Amino acid sequence: MRFGDYAAKLGAIPASKAQLAIAEWRLGPHGDEDGFRHVAAAVFHDNEVVYDLNAQLWADSERQPIEDASINWPVAASPYRTVATLRLLRQDAYSPKRVRYFD
Fold this sequence. Notes:
Blueprint: E1 2-3, E2 6-14, H1 17-21, H2 35-46, E3 49-57, E4 81-88, H3 96-102
Antiparallel strand pairs: 1-2, 2-3, 3-4
């Protein structure tokens, strides 16, 4: 995306302890099929959720093809820079009112 005079890849990286604690969570083959939704809703209910918004600036057309977002750009060519912090307050992320809105 355009980033001032540059092009950049942006990423929202989970940054709170609660988010990092569930990073390795996996749904078992016999587990609750809505398990991920339940875990995510519990994290939002019990915690402020924080993301670091990172930008990686385009610097090298050979190693950072701009038309294929699936290719990782080497950090050595352009390190990630935290440009903002997003904070989402505790909330009932799966309340009946929100479910009705999304449905």
